[in-house]
Design goal:
alpha/beta, Rossmann fold, 7-stranded mixed β-sheet, 6-stranded mixed β-sheet, 16 helices, 23% strand, globular
Length: 508
């Protein structure tokens, strides 16, 4: 492979040697050794369950290795807690924001500090830092009123204010717009040029070449090599990650309009909280064997629309017809009983119950009681077979069907949830962010499974912030902006500049 590196990094900031970590019979980290150089942006790549999260948790003091050693700035490094790691110069920005929505941006930054400076001193420091690195945000704004990109800036400021030498970024672009991604990359490059090293985790391989100097690739808990991403294509990197060739799913062939499955009319629905989005003037239809892709920047009404479709939120100004049923007042369970299936964005706690195992999570979303015998007894044989089929088909990395949902990584739980819903063989499947946090091969498999169920006659509503995903498998596309849905358009007919105009709010 032309992009493989054989030379050791000079001027090493962080080094780990032979790191091992096991959870029961699962070897999450297997003899891992990596170098991160000074002022270097170093990518850490791997499929879901490859061991990335375990390794960075060890570096950040959230976990302790079973064996191996680490050095930081040529000094022995073995943090016992995140506070210990931060004290020694390591910061981390997590994939899932840890911010309090009812508090202001400034209050969140203040709460995140180990040492509490004076408020004026901190305010001045934050202003200086944010201006220097292009991280401008209204410090008096409530977090709930900020966009995903602005929230991330708050997280980054909270990490940078403690002056880390190594900044760990976990899936930082998963909910950002292209413009916000561009702004983030400028910030990270400036940080690197001034001496901060960055350990960067992402499943978006196209951005790795633009941003990163080197890339360490993990597979099944072990390092398979170190590469120069600028000398490789995204496809080549992806195939090294998964150890096999990648494929591109093809969108289904939709039937004629006599096969309408769902029609939705929303006049106006106000949010339940001050941080939500009002849905208004939404009109959509979806047909058998059709995938309707709904795109848009996070926070423009995706969650509110999902709640309307699932039945978690009801309103008099909403009219939903499924087949021959008026279902706008039906509960989520009743909708499931007549052939609808749902996979919400929030995996843990919404799509799956963390303290229940995978078998139990399959059972509680069994609307047609296919796993129940007479007198309410459970057919554990069929339930076990169904759950293990999901695990195998969607390559869910887990210790087995009896594993707690909370023990799975985010990507593996996502694969299980989507697989479980598809396994119900619904007539209508509504899915929000189906491949969020999922590696390249798993994402392709999920998209292929969605296409396959559409080809059996099911109608699909695919809500996603991944524009490439929507354009790849959707027959029609529409975009949410500030609670408004653009007119659905045949995917083949839409142009990139039209998408930009819609998302910018200057076209419908």
């Amino acid at each position: 492979m032309t992009g493989k590196l054989n030379n050791k990094i000079k001027n090493t900031l962080f080094h780990c040697t032979a790191i091992n970590k096991e959870f029961g019979n699962l070897k999450a980290n297997d003899d891992i050794s990596i170098n991160v150089g000074n002022s270097q942006i170093h990518a850490l790549l791997g499929e879901n369950g490859a061991g990335k999260s375990t390794l960075v948790k060890i570096i950040y003091g959230l976990l302790q290795p079973d064996s191996g050693s680490m050095t930081f700035s040529n000094t022995e490094f073995s943090p016992k807690s995140p506070k210990d790691a931060r004290t020694q110069g390591v910061g981390m920005v997590f994939q899932h924001f840890s911010l309090f929505e009812p508090l202001t941006a400034f209050e969140n930054i203040l709460l995140g500090l180990d040492k509490q400076p004076g408020e004026k001193e901190l305010h001045d420091s934050v202003i200086t830092l944010s201006e220097s690195y292009g991280l401008e945000v209204n410090l008096s704004s409530f977090i709930g009123d900020l966009s995903a990109g602005e929230r991330q800036r708050v997280e980054i400021i909270r990490a940078l204010i403690q002056k880390p030498k190594l900044l760990i970024m976990d899936e930082p672009t998963s909910v950002l717009t292209p413009f916000e991604c561009e702004s983030l990359f400028k910030t990270l490059k400036k940080l690197a040029s001034e001496g901060t090293s960055i350990l960067y985790i992402s499943h978006k391989l196209k951005e790795i070449a633009d941003l990163c100097d080197t890339a360490s690739v993990l597979r099944k808990g072990a390092i398979v090599g170190e590469y120069d991403p600028k000398k490789m294509t995204a496809k080549e990197l992806g195939e090294i990650m998964v150890g096999q060739s990648l494929f591109e799913p093809k969108r289904p062939v939709a039937n004629n309009k006599s096969d309408r499955v769902l029609s939705v009319k929303i006049i106006e629905v106000k949010p339940d909280t001050q941080f939500g989005v009002t849905l208004k003037n939404i009109d959509l239809e979806v047909y058998q064997s059709e995938i309707l892709g709904i795109g848009g920047v996070a926070g423009n009404g995706q969650e509110e629309l999902m709640q309307i479709l699932t039945g978690e939120k009801k309103a008099r100004s909403v009219f939903i017809k499924y087949m021959d049923y008026n279902i706008e007042m039906l509960s989520p369970r009743k909708r499931r009983e007549i052939g609808l299936a749902f996979a919400p964005e929030e995996r843990l706690g919404h799509a799956a119950v963390g303290n229940l195992n995978l078998l139990e999570n399959s059972l509680i979303t069994d609307p047609k009681k296919r796993f129940q015998k007479k007198m309410g007894f459970i057919n554990f044989s069929e339930l076990n077979e169904f759950t293990n089929e999901i695990i195998e088909k969607f390559n869910v990395k887990t210790t087995g069907a009896s594993a707690l949902a909370s023990s799975l990584s985010g990507g593996n739980l996502q694969k299980f949830v989507v697989g479980r819903e598809i396994g119900q063989k619904p007539s209508l499947f509504v899915v929000n962010q189906p491949t969020w946090g999922v590696d390249a091969l798993s994402a392709a498999n999920i998209r292929q499974a969605i296409v396959e169920i559409a080809n059996t006659g099911a109608a699909i509503i695919l809500i996603s912030q991944d524009l490439d995903e929507i354009l790849e498998i959707s027959n029609k596309v529409a975009f949410l902006t500030n609670g408004n849905l653009s007119t659905p358009t045949n995917t083949a007919d839409i142009k990139t500049d039209e998408i930009g105009a819609i998302l910018g709010g200057i076209s419908d």
